[in-house]
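Objective 1b of the project was to move from sequence-level analysis to a structural picture of ligand recognition. The entry below was assembled by the postdoctoral researcher (A.K.) and checked by the PI before modelling. It contains the amino acid sequence of the target and the SMILES of the bound compound, pyridoxal-5'-phosphate.
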Amino acid sequence: MTPYDLSTLLSSTDTQSGDQRGFSRLAQSMIPSEILTIAYDVRDRIAAGADILNLTVGDFSPQEFPLLPELQDAVKKALDDGQSNYPPAPGVLELRTAVCELYSQRLALRYPVDSVLIAGGARPIIAGTYLCLINPGDQVVYGIPSWNNDHYCRMTQATPVEIPTTETTNFFIFRENIRPHLQTARLIALNTPQNPTGTVLHPKDLQEIAEMVVEENLRRATCGQRTLYILFDHIYWLLTFDGVEHASPVQLVPECAPYVIHVDGLSKAFAATGLRVGWGVGPPDLMKRMTSVLTHMGAWAPRPEQIATASILQKSAVVDRHIQHICNETGVRLRALSASIDNVRETTGQNITAIAPEGAIYLSIHLDLLGKVRPDGKTITNDEDTLAFLLDEAGVALVPFRGFGAPNAQGWFRASVGTVSRAQCEEVRDRLNRAFSRLT
Ligand SMILES: Cc1ncc(COP(=O)(O)O)c(C=O)c1O
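Corresponding predicted holo structure:
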């Protein structure tokens, strides 16, 4: 049978507006991730033969960061054992129990198993939190730059309360920034170690926020106002460097446990982004409702991978060794990249600096090239021009903080080291030195 070619018929829809096509307001309001748009553009250039060091994607390349062999074997074994049917909606019990153990051993927090919801990566837990807590118009408070909170606000018609941050606070918000919005906010979204900045929120500052939330909820309880929550995205919590300390608000102020949703998973600390195993840890009543929401989306992690993850998390020594390995490898790259930036500043006298890496897989780089003239006579007037100059003249691809909803953070860029080698981080030095020497 000759298949009916539908391409022409369907291409006519391209010329019609979303309204004409009857798309929902939600569908029309969503915009693609700016980070991915830049990353795909770089990928296309590389595919077309450009020599580019790609520091854009927050992913790990399997060549640089191969999957833990024990995890790979465990996934294969689960498949061989016939584990190919639906997982239970909240996740397989072995994995939920293993996550409880992980939090007990490494965070000294003993959660009941009903606090743990397994999902297809960390994203569904973030989306699920928004969907379970936000009514249209509810306020969500977060600092910018921020990883995707603007998109989740759009998705749920939340009113974003965006607080611009600067390098002087390592791009974090504090208790005093939140206080003016305390009585009207529904959700405070925090992420540490932070994407895109690679910085870690100091436990003392986190404790102040947690105490304030507990106090505010006591006040709300007396007047029947809806609860205030903290979405605590600590997907990178096992990746910190040079003695930098990470803490959960619940460790610091246990009384805030009923109001905190931890966002977590395998993706980053285990360099296993494609396996799609994440989890949320929070108050059981909320996690139960989130289970229903995610069930209707089928946002589960695949069953064989859940079983495999459980078997790995149960082996404390294997987890220790692997996390140490990922920390060493990411730390070495970030330090090499940071040293490259220092060298470029010293060699060329250009205004380029980096914030010392503290956690995650990112380096914040500040580049002030405004007013400089490229070899082709074009003057650099904004971040787009800087980005284009780096791509054209140095073959180095970064993401501007604008991609993280922070147009105020002019001159700041994120470099991600998960897909490059240490040698490539060192090579950035030579590439930038060469390119910068051609600026006038
Ligand atoms: C801060 C942060 N939270 C959540 C995620 C999503 O993780 P996952 O790939 O497990 O959905 C990412 C991914 O880049 C991230 O950077």
